[in-house]
């Protein structure tokens, strides 16, 4: 075969392998954002989910990887002002919050990678928590890794539920905050008590020790870290069938001498 053709094939295989590895790393990172989202700290604390969010001055944001730098949002309960966030009063990447008593506090909107986080974050909308709901009810965060947008998490419109949305490369999916919290809280006990599987928090996937495989709930696919390979349930069943057929052929051959 022509050396140029061989070189082209080799480059194609290398590029495909590189893309698969990049895809695995990206999927793993985007899954990690769901785990982190559950433990984010609220910036706006209100009494009830029956509040109004009112934009009293147009919100403006410049370009990629930036927080709002102009605009004002008011949070009102029973018509009374509970909190106001002014994006034009603080430094770049910061805002000024004023509570109902007139007390002022600086909000940090752009956060570098923290000790307990794998990401840099831009808080697009302040994170809201209410006294009558155990979940974060509103707020939008963008998660970045090495300068690349990994995922956008939207906690909702103020309703009390455990549903948030994750947007990755223009594809939006819902996920349960309570499910992720349960997995995170039970990680250590699952690892000790179950020989079948446990939730690997670092990868954001279930790990099956006996199979040596990870399972990604978002894509519904298996990942073989040793061979750096993704495959579906159908692929797994086909492999088992092929192995079974091969074993049967071997036994029949041995039987017939």
Tally of separate helices: 4
N/C terminus separation = 41 Å
Contiguous low-pLDDT stretches (5 residues minimum) are 8-24, 183-194
Number of strands: 17
Radius of gyration, in Å, reads: 24 Å
Percentage of residues in DSSP E strands: 35-45%
The helix content is 25-40%
Pattern of helices and strands: HEEEEEEEEEEEEHHEEEEEH
Rounded mean pLDDT score: 77
Outline: elongated
Biggest sheet descriptor: 7 strands, mixed
Structural class: alpha+beta
How would you describe this structure to a colleague?
This protein has a domain of 135 residues. The protein is built from four helices and 17 strands. The strands form three sheets. Strands 1, 7, 8, 9, 10, 11 and 12 form a seven-stranded mixed beta sheet that branches. A hairpin with a 5-residue loop joins strand 10 and strand 11. Helix 1 crosses helix 2. The radius of gyration is 24 Å and the shape is elongated. It starts with a helix and ends with a helix.
